[in-house]
Amino acid sequence: MGDKRLTARLVHSAALLAEYPGRAISANARSDAAAADGYYRLIEQPEQTAVTTESILAPHRWRSIQRMRGQRTVLCIQDGNDPNFATRPGSGGLAVIGRNQTQSNSLGLHLQQTLAVNKLIGSSRTDSPCKL
Fold this sequence. Notes:
Elements: H1 4-19, H2 33-43, H3 53-69, E1 75-81, E2 95-99, E3 105-108, E4 111-117
Antiparallel strand pairs: 1-4, 2-3
C-alpha cells in the first residue's frame, strides 16, 4: 500500500479476524485494546488515504499477472452474481440490483470474479454446462 505501518496493521488485523471469522475483533481472545483500536483506525481511514480496496488488492493482482506471464496458457474464467441482502439487518451502502415480481427493490451488490487457471483437466457435459 506504500505505507509500511498501514500494511503491517492490515496484515495483523486480517490475521486476527481470520482466527475467529464472524466475530468482532474485540472478541478475539488474542487481540488487545491496542490491536482493536488500530483495526478501527485502519478501516475508518478517509478514502483519500492508501487504505482502499484497490490498494489492498494491488499486490495480489500484480503477483497474479507475474505468475500468468510465466505460463504458456492461462484460462481466465469469469462469473458474476448479485447477492440480495435486502432482508439482512445492519446492511448499509447497498444498491438496488433489481426488482422482484411485486416490484420490491432487491438490495445488494454486484460481484464479478475471475479465476485464472493454467491446467485444464477436462470439461463439463456439453448438454448442460452446470452438470458434471
